Amino acid sequence: MKRLIITAIMLGNLSGMAMAQVAHCGDSSDVSVMAGLAYSFGPNRTEENLGFTLKAVNTNEADHFVVGAGGTFYPWSEERFGLDLSVGYNATDSSALVGYDFLKKAPVVSGGWVDTIDTSCSLPPP
């Protein structure tokens, strides 16, 4: 009988730890914002193609592939604004993307800061 009670207590304790793991490591990814620099590969490969970009990326998790959409301001170009769709990779607190700018009608690369979260999980201390 003692073994049955001890086994029940241990199983209850393990299930509680597993529930804590799920609660602690649940799906917490959200859409995030990337701010940085972009360069479009238009007909003139000069500083006119360098711009400041702001994109929404589909996850804030570090070390994940992302899809992003955003706008770019090109202060040295005649066409001052760009809108693009991009794919790329979130590293820790940074992101690098490649895509296509529909207003400039050119491929674009961008990189910058994004507030990421660490998705590696460990059990919280008891």
Please, what is the average pLDDT?
81
- Helix tally equals 1
- Percent of residues in helices comes to 10-25%
Shape summary: rod-shaped
Class of secondary structure makeup: alpha+beta
Strand content: 35-45%
Describe this structure in words.
By secondary structure, the chain is α+β, with helices and mostly antiparallel strands. It has a domain at 32-114. It has 1 helix and 6 strands, in the order H-E-E-E-E-E-E. The protein has a 6-stranded antiparallel barrel. Residues 14-24 have low confidence and may be disordered.
Please give a quick description of this structure.
The chain has one helix spanning 2-24, and strands at 32-40, 50-57, 64-73, 81-91, 94-101, 106-114. With 126 residues, the chain is an alpha+beta fold.
Task: Please describe the structure with a list of short key phrases separated by commas or semicolons.
1 helix; 126 residues; alpha+beta; 18% helix; 6-stranded antiparallel barrel
List the helices and strands and how they pair.
Blueprint: H1 2-24, E1 32-40, E2 50-57, E3 64-73, E4 81-91, E5 94-101, E6 106-114
Antiparallel strand pairs: 1-2, 1-6, 2-3, 3-4, 4-5, 5-6
